[in-house]
Amino acid sequence: MQIEWSSNGIYFIDGIMSHLPAFQFSYLMAVSPLILLVFLCFDKAQFRVAWLLSLSVPGALLLPFLLITLLMDRWVDANLTFLSYLRDVEDLLTVIPLAWIAPIVFCKQLWNLARGHFLPTDRWSWVASAALVALDLWTVAVT
After folding, report:
1. Complete DSSP assignment for 35-56
2. What pLDDT does 67 receive?
3. Residue 35's closest CA among 101, 97, 109, 108?
4. Sequential DSSP letters for the chain
5. Mean pLDDT within 9-30
6. pTM attached to this predicted model
7. Taking a C-beta distance cutoff of 8 angstroms, is the pair 55, 132 a contact?
């Protein structure tokens, strides 16, 4: 995979992310404060599940978009094989780690929410939240 650096971020030359320059991941990040506001309305904002769930939603929404974009690129160019599609997915998940980390965090926190497993925030909750914010910012820089 060839990567070209530009002033707007990273663009992939071979067409993997040909639809992404028009897509702004920062728009998805607006969902996080809204979800946290819902937790605040129910007086649950002091729990770990509120913070990690709200911060992982943009990345969890990003993964289906990226996979559909890759499938659309493969559908347009029928000469490419399934193996090249898997290589592109691997390259994409390496460049944008939020695309696979956030859905895992989202599913785990959704499971905790469904079970009513509310742990208070602690030092490690803030570290995990900061890591998700850092991955969000990296994804904004890349896309």
Report:
1. HHHHHHHTT-TTBHHHHHHHHH
2. 76
3. 109
4. --EEEETTEEEETTSTTTTGGG--HHHHTTHHHHHHHHHHHTT-TTBHHHHHHHHHHHHHHHHHHHHHHHHHHHHH-TTS-HHHHHHHHHHHHHH-THHHHHHHHHHHHHHHHHHT--PBP-HHHHHHHHHHHHHHHHHHHH-
5. 56
6. 0.73
7. yes
Instruction: Determine how β-strand 3-6 pairs with β-strand 9-12.
Output: antiparallel
Amino acid of residue 137: L
Tell me, what's the pLDDT at 110?
A: 94
Tracing tokens 């998805």 back to the chain, one arrives at 28
Domain ranges of the chain: 43-142
Instruction: Calculate the CA 19 to chain-centre distance.
Output: 16
